[in-house]
Amino acid sequence: MPRESLVDAVVAYLRTEIGSGAWPIGSRIPSDAELMAAADAGRNTVREAIQALVQAGMLVRKPSKGTYVTAATPLSDLLESTGRRDVLELRLAVDATAAALAAIRRTDEDADGLRRLLAARAAAFEAADLDERARADTALHAEIVRISGNSFFADIYDSSAGVLHETVLDDVRDEASHRHDDHADLVAAIVAGRRDDASAAVTRILAPLVFGEAARAGAIVPD
């Protein structure tokens, strides 16, 4: 059996145990050795399967303590079943905090990378390819999340890449969504270590989308 199929089989086994309640949320899953015996799989296969569920937001590793159940459903499944407004609100919360953290934790190498991604985003918006616009925009924001150093934020982006791409794809159809000045301010604030300014720049970028979507949905939007 191909290695990918072996890993998928162990992932399915782990998900079944979690979904059935055998391993409730908050509980520690069995050791690698126990899982190897239960799933009839090798150590590397078991570890790859566990990592897949860590990235899906269902498991979390705690150093020196073990691996614990955090959710019964993959984050990507939850996001795919939610509406655009919910995804945008999640992005605003995550991206604003991630930007502030990135301003504190960025390295000189990170700063150079952000400048390159900002330039690539600007170039993409000069072209008519909407997919390229969405990829360039997502790449910049995902890199900021990575620089933040928060592994859970990174897992959210990794697990929901498809959903986020579709959401961004809707946004970049509008030329007004370019917002290059705001993105330039965002990168400049992170590079300079100005966390409040970095968070505020994200809010300027995403809040119009969030509250515009809320208005279209008929929700009450504050003045």
UniProtKB/TrEMBL annotation:
InterPro entries: GntR_C (IPR011711), TF_FadR/GntR_C (IPR008920), Tscrpt_reg_HTH_GntR (IPR000524), WH-like_DNA-bd_sf (IPR036388), WH_DNA-bd_sf (IPR036390). Keywords: DNA-binding, Transcription, Transcription regulation. Gene3D superfamilies: GntR ligand-binding domain-like, Winged helix-like DNA-binding domain superfamily/Winged helix DNA-binding domain. Residues 4-72 form the HTH gntR-type domain. GO terms for molecular function: DNA binding; DNA-binding transcription factor activity. It holds the Pfam family GntR. PROSITE patterns: HTH_GNTR. Coiled coil: none annotated. This is FCD domain-containing protein. It comes from Agromyces seonyuensis.
